[in-house]
Amino acid sequence: MQNSSSYDPTARRLVPRRDFLAAAGCTLGALSATSLTRAVDKGVAVPSYLESVADQYDADPRAAALQWFRSAKFGMFIHYGLYSLLGRHEWVQRNEKIHVAEYAKLADRFTAEGFDADMITDLALETGMKYINITTRHHDSFCLFETKYTDFKSTNSPAKRDLVGELAQQCANKGLGMFFYYSHGRDWRHPHAPNNWGWGSAARPQYEEEEPAYVQGAEHDVAIYTEFMNNQITELLTQYGPVAGIWLDGIGVLLSKKEKAAVFKCQELYDMIHAAQPQVLVSYKQGFLGTEDFKAPERHFKGESDVPLELCDTMQPHGWGYTKADDGKHKTTDQVMAMLDKADAMNANLLLNTGPMPDGSIHPEDVATFKEVGKRLKEK
């Protein structure tokens, strides 16, 4: 289902914020200035989700964003992609050793007819959430956004839709922060992504025979993959208006061979992100360099954090992408309230994941629970 507010990748409009994206030298994608920003007295346009910290924004956009993030407390995580069609969660390609060409055939079935950004953002607001994070590109490398660096994308599937753009538009319209999950350290498609013999067995699927899509031996060059990623992250920062955060994943690959990880040039990436959009918050799970803006571990965190903390967890017992075997077993309202209490006790946000159905619609169990959680929070 594609509603009337869907993203138009052919449209272009500049947002009137001085030096916004000046470092990237780019214009913004199809988001109107009025829906994205609010003009303040000093003439600086404030992203709609940061209106509560507008006074601080002009002096220090990132400090204002950090203040907003600390008070946001609750966000929605969305894992959606080709893996959703199989219903065996997001690691199905690796777990079942599905070869690249065979897995790519799923793109021919990707219609996303149930993905409704208007409904998703309304649900987030009704639940009491302040931001949304979507998998723009997971480990399988399928992109839910328009990109010129690969044809493996939703706009090149039967859906012919930029799902990231549609969701960014609705978040901007409704004052929700828009975070972009991006698989950084792990990629199961790109020819030059970290491989098993150089970066550990968790980097790629452990195929019984050589995968023809991968470059082998001395010609394998992770720097080529790194350039590909940086180019795509630049697209995410220049096509969809003000972004609340870049949420990197795949840290386990880098940590397994930390002596080689300099090729990823993470600090240069962080600096590029902040130069392009100074309010953007960067995380790399529990932290890789220590210069990330916040930490985002899965479910648990021990010790103290000198930066804001976000715990991510999921509504399903297993996995983050849709898992059919878990139907009827999703977390209850009481369980979600306990998760919120746990995060609050740690002075952390809760990023709560839902894995949409194969058609992109939010799982009905999660819709019902989210709405009930919203009612409970209003009563507190």
From TrEMBL:
Its EC number is 3.2.1.51. Pfam families: Alpha_L_fucos (PF01120). GO terms for molecular function: alpha-L-fucosidase activity. Residues 63-378 form the Glycoside hydrolase family 29 N-terminal domain. It is an enzyme of class 3 (hydrolase). GO terms for cellular component: lysosome. The record marks 312 as: May be important for catalysis. The keyword Signal applies. The keyword Hydrolase applies. Keywords: Glycosidase, Hydrolase, Signal. Belongs to the glycosyl hydrolase 29 family. This is alpha-L-fucosidase.
